[in-house]
Every structure is written in structure tokens, then in C-alpha cells.
Write a structure and sequence with these properties.
Blueprint: E1 10-15, H1 22-39, H2 42-50, E2 53-58, E3 76-79, H3 96-101, E4 106-109, H4 112-117, H5 122-134, E5 138-143, H6 147-151, H7 155-164, E6 176-181, H8 195-213, H9 215-220, E7 223-226, H10 234-238, E8 245-248, H11 255-270
Parallel strand pairs: 1-2, 1-8, 2-3, 3-4, 4-5, 5-6, 6-7, 7-8
Helix pairs in contact: 1-11, 2-11, 7-8
The structure holds phosphoenolpyruvate.
């Protein structure tokens, strides 16, 4: 495996889960615009404009249409889930073409809360990922082990099974796949994985991915870390090899906090 390079951009993605009403989303982007207009320097704006640094927010479905206000840099907006079929009798689901119709190009798939609470399996994750990649979406596929799995030494086995469920993407032209390693025990607990755990696990993920989709595609697939990322710990997380950004829950809900995460991402580009 090649040593990691910063040929991949940094992505900071905010997963808002079932938080922030339409009104709160509008307030977030209005405050985010005011704040970033005031505090972001030329370097930070330029990283965001060039997409060396990418920002993405996954709000609730009802907020998809309203986010974001025109900003001085792009912020991608994504859906927290989507079905593999394009239409049909699937009550409560939303399809790729429906999202595309309102300008959405990013989708989150297989979040641990979907797996834990809504019966998402590696098979359904595979079906969603394959269909959405074929439709041209940027797909962030979440993987990660539970506390019991880590404590019983099964982390690599579980990640391997989850990575095995990545569809055969060799036939898809220009697949925009992103993997997010989110240890379930670190999500929303205030206890992020340690640098050592992240370094070891991301290295393993890159190798497993290489076996699954081939070295070239694996090398260009961004790997995010998620789980209790905050403005205080993101700098050290972004220093880990094979970490190309972060998927952030709680700390992405406040404009200043999300802006701080982006500023840390911009700084990390200067030192890589
Ligand atoms: C998440 O839900 O994807 C997440 C990482 O949450 P938090 O940052 O709050 O741990």
C-alpha cells in the first residue's frame, strides 16, 4: 500500500440526523454566512472554492430545498438516505430521481443508526450504494464496529464484512464513493477513537478496500473518520494517515462550530 498522500481533498460533512427544522436550517445558514464572511481568510475561501476542502451538510428531508443561502464558497447538501429503486411501493422512502429533481447529488448510506434502529443490513446498504453510484450520486457509506465487537477483537472481521458488501464498482464510470469509518461506540458519546486506533483501523480499511475494489480505486476513495469529532480534536484526527476528513454529528449543528471544523480542515491542507 502506498504511503498516504494529500492527493485526495479534505471533506468535512455534517450529519444533522433528525435535528433542525426548516426555520432552524435557514437560521443556521444565515448565521453561517455572516460568520464565515467575517472570519474566513483568503486561504480558507480559496481551499473551499477550489474544492481542495469540501463542505457538505446532510439536513432533514424537509430542509433539503432551503439549504444553503448563497455563500462565497460551495457547500454540498445531501440526503441522509435513499432507496435503491427509482419509484414504487416503498412507503417512507425517497428515491434518487426525486432527490436529483431538487438538485441533491450527495447521499449518506448505512449510518449505524439506520443499521441499529431501522433494520439496515449489509445487503440493503449494498443495494442502495450500487444504485445511487450508478445514478451518479456522491455516496458516503458508513461502516464501523460496536463496542462489544471491538472489545472481543472482532473489529477487522466486522469491517471486512461491511467492506465486502461494497458493490462491484469497476463497471461504474467515475464512481463517487466515500467511506466513513464510524465506530458505533464513539458516536454521540463524547469519546472519539484515539489517534492510534484511527491510524490502525484506517490503514486496515484502505487494505481491505484495495482487496475489494482494486488498488487504484481504493487509493482515490476518501476515508472519513466519524464519532465525537469536535473543533477541539479535529486537528489531531486529520493528522492521521488515511484520514481524508470527518463525518460530524453534534458539532456540525452550530454555525461557528461547523466553521471551526472547516478552518481546521483548511489548516491541515497546509501541513500535508
Ligand atoms: C454521526 O452521527 O455520524 C456522528 C459522528 O455523530 P457525533 O459526531 O455526534 O458523534
Amino acid at each position: 500500500m502506498n504511503p498516504p498522500t494529500r492527493s485526495r481533498s479534505i471533506l468535512i460533512a455534517g450529519n444533522w440526523k433528525m435535528n433542525s427544522s426548516l426555520q432552524e436550517t435557514e437560521k443556521f445558514f444565515s448565521e453561517f454566512k455572516n460568520y464565515t464572511d467575517r472570519v474566513f481568510n483568503d486561504q480558507e475561501i480559496s481551499h473551499l472554492k477550489s474544492q481542495a476542502l469540501q463542505a457538505c451538510i446532510f439536513p432533514s428531508f424537509t430542509s433539503l430545498l432551503k439549504a444553503p443561502l448563497p455563500l462565497s464558497f460551495p457547500v454540498h447538501i445531501g440526503a441522509q438516505n435513499a432507496h435503491w429503486e427509482k419509484k414504487g411501493s416503498f412507503t417512507g422512502e425517497i428515491s434518487g430521481p426525486m432527490l436529483k429533481e431538487v438538485g441533491i447529488q450527495w447521499v449518506l448510506v448505512g449510518h449505524s443508526e439506520r443499521r441499529q434502529f431501522f433494520g439496515e443490513t449489509n445487503l440493503t446498504v449494498q443495494k442502495r450504494t450500487e444504485s445511487l453510484l450508478k445514478q451518479g450520486f456522491h455516496v458516503i457509506l458508513c461502516i464501523g464496529e460496536s463496542r462489544e465487537e471491538r472489545e472481543s477483537g472482532k473489529t477487522k472481521e466486522i469491517l471486512s464484512q461491511q467492506i465486502q458488501s461494497i458493490p462491484d464498482i469497476s463497471a461504474i464510470s467515475d464512481p463517487h464513493l466515500i467511506l466513513a469509518y464510524e465506530p458505533v461506540w464513539a458516536i454521540g458519546t463524547g469519546v472519539a477513537a484515539s489517534q492510534e486506533q484511527i491510524i490502525e483501523t484506517h490503514q486496515n480499511i484502505r487494505c481491505l478496500l484495495s482487496e475489494k475494489i482494486g488498488a487504484n480505486l481504493a487509493e482515490t476513495t476518501p476515508l472519513l473518520y466519524g464519532g465525537s469529532v469536535t473543533p477541539d480534536n479535529i486537528t489531531s484526527l486529520l493528522q492521521c494517515p488515511h484520514v481524508d476528513g470527518a463525518l460530524v454529528g453534534g458539532a456540525s449543528l452550530q454555525p461557528e462550530s461547523f466553521a471551526s471544523l472547516l478552518r481546521a480542515g483548511s489548516k491541515s491542507l497546509l501541513f500535508s
